[in-house]
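hi support,

uploading two proteins for the ticket. first:
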Amino acid sequence: MKHLFLLPILLILFTFTSCKDDEEAEPIVETALDKELKGEWANYETISVYIDGNDQVAHTDTSRVEVRHTFNKPNMKILHSISGSEATVKYALPDTSATRYIVITDSENRQDIFEITTLTETEMVWEKILRYASYKSGDSYITSRRGEFTYKFRKL
């Protein structure tokens, strides 16, 4: 009789216990923008402009170090040409009709958002504006009112 009492408990446990997750991963849907990005791009120039409190350019910097970006939704592999360092991050393209943005998320869930201002078959430009961006001047860092960053890419 005691064993019959255990039978409903075992049936309940068996019903709610599973060895395998029954949910399947959502299929990756590629939008037209995803298809345009897919492949390898070289970030060949980055222009940084720092604006002071009077809305005047306080400092500019241009970097021409090539950084490769390989897009394969949802991943983007980044390879730095000089250091050889490599990272894989996630990217997303939020659905907005007016402006195109790309959201990059690293392995620690930190996000960075860029506006895609130009995208052709061979060229792409991202822009980002940061409030209170810092730049190095001599041995010290100076904080500007805002930093305007432009990233230029070419398709490889």
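and the second one:
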Amino acid sequence: MKARRPAESARTGAATGAHATVWEVLRHALPVPLAGLATARPEAAAVAARGLGDLPAVAAECGERCGARGDVPHLPETADRAGSSRLVAQARRLRDALGGGGGRLIRTATPATAPVPAPLNSRKCNKEDGSMLYPSVTISS
């Protein structure tokens, strides 16, 4: 699979206004390729990084728009790499958008007493911690 295809799909989703939803997907998807870069030999990492800069770029855009905060595994190591490749530049942008990454992973679990989720298009991103918010749904009998 080409590295740019997941980024193109995520960018299409974000273009529809689903920034918070795309962010939720990317924050779980990004650690996998970033971990591969962190553990690879330098020459292999350079090849693996090719075309990967688009994914953190979309994640940074979505994170900025929905005010996400927290830490993504392996992001600090990628952002601290030497150079100015698209991958490194966008990893730095994402790290900065998340508040420097010093915190814990963004909370997404909803409490047991949470209201019934509304349709996807009415979800909003919580500006405080980046978790998804659902408007209350009232069921009357």
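thanks. also noticed: DSSP finds seven helices and two strands in the chain.
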